[in-house]
Amino acid sequence: MLLVEREIDIPAKKGNIGLLAYFEEAIREYLPTNGIPIRFAVTQSSPEGYHCELGILTGLDEAGISRPTSSSFVGLRRTGIFEFMPRDVENMDKFNVVMIVPTGIGAEIGGHAGDAAPAARLLAGACDTLITHPNVVNASDINELPENG
Questions:
Q1: Whole-number Å distance between alpha carbons of 81 and 49
Q2: Tens-of-pLDDT digits for all 149 residues of the chain?
Q3: Among 70, 99, 120, 135, fewest CB within 10 Å belongs to which?
Q4: What are phi and psi of 16, to 5 degrees?
Q5: Residues 13/55, Cβ–Cβ less than 8 Å
Q6: Euclidean distance between the first and final Cα of the chain, in Å?
Q7: Going by C-beta distance under 8 Å and a sequence separation of 6 or more, which residues neighbour residue 3?
Q8: Domains in the chain: boundaries
């Protein structure tokens, strides 16, 4: 088996409506016959389109592994990563929040140790449990992890 990572550009979709189906169709031309998409990320967007990263698992046949079917591994179907599957069970005991802080060029907050701590503390005040990366709240000599983080 081989995991292949590709960078691709997909033209913009007017109104950005129905993007999951649009992306699912757009990546088909990049998939080898026996390839299964296992990772898709839009890393940059502009009025012209979307710059994306696509992870493709290939070589299942050569490895003697039968191709997954919808009844075996739902997440490994040819384009299953784009399928929205609502949960059968709903647990509303607590309100949990996951905070993802982008880093690097163009990041509005974050990018440096502890930069996002004020935003994390603000968000933590509105939820029961805040889940985030330690670097969001850690700086060289302080730790601003909220009590419910």
A1: 20
A2: 889 999 999 999 988 888 999 999 999 999 888 788 989 999 999 999 999 999 998 887 777 776 655 444 444 444 478 887 777 888 888 999 998 877 655 566 555 555 778 888 899 999 999 998 777 777 656 666 777 86
A3: 70
A4: 55, 35
A5: no
A6: 39
A7: 38, 55, 56, 57, 58
A8: 2-82, 88-149
